[in-house]
Amino acid sequence: MSAAQNPLSELRHRIDEIDTALHDLIMRRTEIVQEIAAVKGASNAASFHLPGREAEVLRRLIRRHEGAFPKPALVRIWRELISALIRLQGPFAVAVYAPDERLIYWDLARDHYGGLTPIMGHASTGQVVRAVTEGSASIGVLPVPEQDDPDPWWRALVGNDPKLPRVVARLPFGAGNQRGEPREALAIALLTSESTGHDRSLLVIETLREISRSALKATLTGLGFEPVLLQAWREPSGSDRRLYLIEIAGYSVPEDPRLPRLVEEHREDVSQVWRIGGYAVPLTADELGLAKRT
To answer: In the prediction, which pLDDT does 294 show?
Structure first.
């Protein structure tokens, strides 16, 4: 039977043609990214890492996707592509909280920032923050804050110094492949998060005394926020000073006029408020086409 008469051979030939077309497009995409880099004139790979833009790209692809190819695999392919192109611009490394060889957050970092991106494990969250602050890592991957942590890492982000890291992403953005119990993480960088139209912002509020969760929520709601209290921290010295980590729906710009109003209108309780970053809301199981577990 000739090749022309063999349907399997013909189908394989068509796949080869598609692979060639895909490869050509990847090479063309690389050329365009390099053109963008030349226009920007920056030499730091971190300056080409745009978490908000990346989230928009992935959401658009998931919305238009049809057929049997798994959406989580589509996300993984594009994450590898995006990360590889970032690394073309210069050094790009990730610092990860990985104490006692626990690699849950390492897996999250690998899935999101690419299998070939250098990843450095650290025994403490403070070491991860320092790696980003000092520039030995472009990104830091840390646990999502939980209540009752006596030394929460997010306190290191509090302040108005532009050299302080900020939260820029929540992981996994798509489905992950973690060892052990599934966890989520926040990524920090020396960047400002961007609005994507479906975001969360993080505030830290300093108070002069303890305030009930309901009262704090009512105060923020009155200013037009949709708040969720993530964590409260009190200085171990016995001071009345409190720090509250708040997540709010939507994108709040650093110059949000509601933030100084919060201090002005509640100065008897609130001394300062800071925006420490934000992130694009990750894709849901429904958006990824994953069957719900019962």
So the answer is: 40
